[in-house]
Structures are given as C-alpha cells and as structure tokens.
C-alpha cells in the first residue's frame, strides 16, 4: 500500500484513476439505489452491452476517417439511444420485454464487434473496455466523466420526489399528476449515463455488479432511500479506491479487483446483519 501512496504523488495516470473512481462512485451510489429498489438490473445490463456498439463505431470513424470522436463519446451516444429504445418498447410494444432487451443486448454487442473488426490496427485499448481499465483514464475522459456526473446528480436533485414515486408506486404517481412515462425515460437516461461512467472503471461485463452490489448492501443497512444513496456512495468509494490500491500494489486487474471487493463488502454486510439479528 505504501508503494501505491508514493506513486500516487508522482504519476498523473494514478491520480486520474483515483479521481475517476471518486466521481463514478457518486453516480453509481445514487442511480444504483434506484435500480435496486425498482429491480431493473436487467435493463442496466442491456444498456451496458450496447455501449460496445457505440465504442466500436466511434473508434472506426476515428481511425478510418479521422472523425473527432472518442470511444467514450460513442458509448454515451449508444447508451442514450438504447435507453430511448427501451422506453419506447416498454410504452408501446406488445412484445415480451425480456425478449426485446435480449435483442438490444445482442445487436449492440454485434455492432461493436463488427466495427472493431473493420478498424485497422490492433485495438487492445478498445477491447479493454470489456473488462475495464481505470488506469487508462485520460484527462479528456476525466472531464467527460465529471460532466456526466454533474448531469446525473443535478437531475436527481431536481426531480428526486418524482423519481421516488415512479420507483415505488407508478399508479399512485399517476393519480398525483406525475407524468410517469416521462420520468421513466429520464431515469433510463440517467442509468445510461451512469453505465458509461462505470464502463471506464470496471468494464462492460461487470457494470451490473458494480451498479447493484453497493446499493444492495446499503439497502440492508438503512431504510430511507436518500440514506441508502449516501451509504451506497460511501461503499462505492471504499470499493473503487480500495480495489485500485490493491490491484496496483499486487499487480491484479483493476476492474476485477474492484468487483471482488464490492462482492466481499456485500456478503460482509449480509453476514453482519444475520449476526446482529441473532445477538
């Protein structure tokens, strides 16, 4: 751990990684709480896998046509598009929701793989998004992550009561005059932005785990939703900073280490609750 702290003062890539973990923890704790209480982790998973399509297309345009777009920006576009499609399907389609989500999930991944295969050169940095590499965060990425974080937090603060209403009782929200479809779409868009933030940290494959494990653990410790959000943010901070430090010190993959730590924290909370309940 001492080596990590010493290098943190010297190397900018470690500082960027730490800041990225801190920023993503805020959105992860807040939006993860909504995802957990509404039980829509499958939607978050579908959006996460669609981001590969946007990343692949962005890298293709960047390398083959010198188009000024980054993979992270492509991920934002793909995630927001996927969220809008899911909202339309939920509102108007008569098809089974799980079938449509599976189609969106698969098509998004397929588009990403197609564009990666058509891009010249070796795209190791792009493929690392599958499993995450927080150490690759650049200053430009950090600015985008910060901007997305501000948007997510700002929207949640502005529409906190409306989002709570649609999460717990849609029919009551309608009776109260809340436009349920509009705020459902807004929540999906916030999930999409949070997914993009987490892809940079833990990768597409493990986004759902990071989005739900800290929030689920927080839900076992507190009762009120805003308490759950604050607790989830703190647990996310513990997992991202602790996982980053351990992975750097021990030369482990950062994304996997963060998720393992999140899982350990979650099961520790479960075990502690059971022990306290018996005491």
Structure, explained:
The protein is mostly helical. The chain has a single domain (about 1-270), classed as ABC transporter involved in vitamin B12 uptake, BtuC, CATH 1.10.3470. Helix content is about 80%, strand content about 0%. The mean pLDDT is about 90.
The appropriate CATH architecture is: Orthogonal Bundle
What name is given to the CATH topology? ABC transporter involved in vitamin B12 uptake, BtuC
**Residue share in helix:** over 70%
Structural class: mainly alpha
> Which ranges are low-confidence, i.e. pLDDT below 50, for 5 or more consecutive residues?
none
List the helices and strands and how they pair.
Layout (H helix, E strand, L loop, with lengths): L1 H7 L3 H27 L2 H25 L5 H22 L4 H21 L6 H4 L11 H20 L1 H9 L1 H6 L4 H23 L4 H15 L3 H26 L3 H25 L1
Key descriptive features of the protein:
single chain; mainly alpha; ABC transporter involved in vitamin B12 uptake, BtuC; 0% strand; globular
